[in-house]
Amino acid sequence: MYQLTYFPIRGRAEHIRLFLEDLKIPYESKIVNFEDWESYKAKHSGTEKLPFGQFPIFQDGNLHLAQSGAIARYLARKHDKYGKTDEEKALNDMLFDMAVDIHSIYLKHIYDPQRKQKMDIFVQEAKGKLELVEKFVNRRGNKFVVCNEPTLADYYMFEVLDILLREEKTILDSYPKLKGIHNQMKNRSHIAAFLKSDRRFDKPVAVSDA
């Protein structure tokens, strides 16, 4: 069985959890609490349990992977969710990396102690990226970001859209295609069940009022 090790937040592991849950792939979720992190890091950093001194860590038998993007791509290839053609695979990489960029905008904002006063700046910056993704998916004309079924990029894009909505509930109102993709993903039966379960962590990051 797969094992995914991370903190008790959504963070950089949630798109991996969403993928596993949607495909009903059994996995063990190993949680390391923040108060235990320094001792865990001191003990395991540089070993197979923590090769680069950071979470998440994914284990498949003797294989231990760090870096959430590498984990997601490994799973997508292994479970045929990377796209059917070289073009779809390349577009999945492109949209996945765009989701990373949008997530970075959110993280910069959410950790800013003055974020409430800078909300307009955050919304404007995020919308600049969302507008480009909206235009792209409209040109493609598919049900999801790359094709007509969820693939690699959809899970990360869904999580990013979800945390943006948490911070600004109207942020997708001008982007009907992205809003529709978000709704489709959250209403997929296995994802919907996960979102209501005690396996789902509420907090996106370790910020008390996030």
From TrEMBL:
One of its GO terms (biological process) is glutathione metabolic process. It catalyses: RX + glutathione = an S-substituted glutathione + a halide anion + H(+). It is an enzyme of class 2 (transferase). It comes from the Eukaryota. The keyword Transport does not apply. Residues 1-83 form the GST N-terminal domain. Keywords: Transferase. Residues 85-205 form the GST C-terminal domain. GO terms for molecular function: glutathione transferase activity. Its EC number is 2.5.1.18. The keyword Transferase applies. Conjugation of reduced glutathione to a wide number of exogenous and endogenous hydrophobic electrophiles. Belongs to the GST superfamily. Pi family. Belongs to the GST superfamily. Mu family. Homodimer. PANTHER family: GLUTATHIONE S-TRANSFERASE (PTHR11571), GLUTATHIONE TRANSFERASE (PTHR11571:SF222). This is glutathione transferase.
